[in-house]
Design goal:
The chain contains nine helices and 14 strands. The protein is of the alpha+beta class. The mean pLDDT is 91.
């Protein structure tokens, strides 16, 4: 069967979830951003620390949960409106605002890349100074709200620098679950990523095909959404081709099934 073989110790939970005897954990709204650069395209990947409660040791794209303040506080905005993003992701306007804000905020927190600028047609050129680092850390510990961060610096969120890509929901058998919208974005000219620590112990730029080859050899671990996204991106020769690609956002919820006594995680 095509899918991911699950360990046998999950058998009781899979059966209980599938039979309705156990209620799945709620899925938290989240955003993930695939940052691209170069020709052929490379993607920015972080390796999560082995001590993390979710996806320990996995190579992932920047991202994380929506902060309630991402949905409630107004920010200066350029590009498609929250209502337009809501139509794309089948979300109400408030959640759509939060998803886009979370996408930009988490990308800055986990890579140092900021998709914002002084005006609707500009973008910050450098975010490597000590003052930027202080703000990044304040965003991480939630002592600074994203809207206040942008307002303090007189910046406009550039939602037009994001492209919607996918919508994945963590399988019901997981104890920690996320309802995640995937975006892609190009590394802004003049900016550069850096190893920012936190939840990751290693960062790297890799061609999608190379990352997949490493995973196939067992040298790195990729979760199904990351692997699928890399497979899709490996088909493109340039970042402009990625940005121009038509996308229909379909919600994907992998299911745990039992076949002939074996447990599999299957992606529809």
């Amino acid at each position: 069967m095509a899918g991911l073989r699950l360990p046998d110790e999950l058998a009781d939970r899979v059966r209980d979830i599938n039979a309705g005897r156990v209620e799945p954990a709620p899925a938290r709204d989240a955003a993930t951003v695939v940052v691209l650069r170069g020709r052929p395209p490379q993607v920015y990947l972080l390796r999560r620390k082995p001590t993390m409660a979710f996806a320990a040791g996995a190579y992932v794209f920047p991202g994380g949960s929506v902060d309630p303040r991402d949905t409630d506080q107004a920010v200066a905005w350029a590009g498609p409106s929250p209502a337009e993003w809501g139509e794309v992701f089948k979300a109400d306007e408030k959640l759509a605002r939060g998803l886009v804000c979370a996408a930009v905020r988490e990308t800055f927190e986990e890579s140092g890349v900021l998709l914002a600028g002084p005006g609707p047609g500009s973008v910050v050129e450098d975010t490597t100074g000590a003052d930027w680092e202080a703000d990044r850390l304040a965003l991480i510990d939630r002592s600074l709200a994203f809207a206040d961060f942008l307002a303090k610096r007189g910046l406009v969120l550039r939602s037009d620098l994001l492209k919607p890509w996918a919508h994945w929901i963590t399988p019901e058998i997981e104890h920690r679950r996320f309802d995640t919208r995937f975006f892609v974005a190009v590394l802004p000219e003049g900016q550069r990523t850096r190893d920012v620590g936190g939840e990751a112990d290693h960062v790297d730029w890799k061609r999608p095909a190379d990352a997949l080859a490493l995973a196939d050899r067992g040298e790195i671990f990729l979760m199904p959404p990351t692997r699928t996204t890399l497979h899709e991106l490996a088909a493109y020769d340039a970042v402009d081709d990625v940005l121009a690609a038509p996308r229909e956002i379909v919600t994907i919820l992998p299911k745990a099934v039992e076949v002939d006594g074996e447990l599999w995680l299957v992606t529809p």
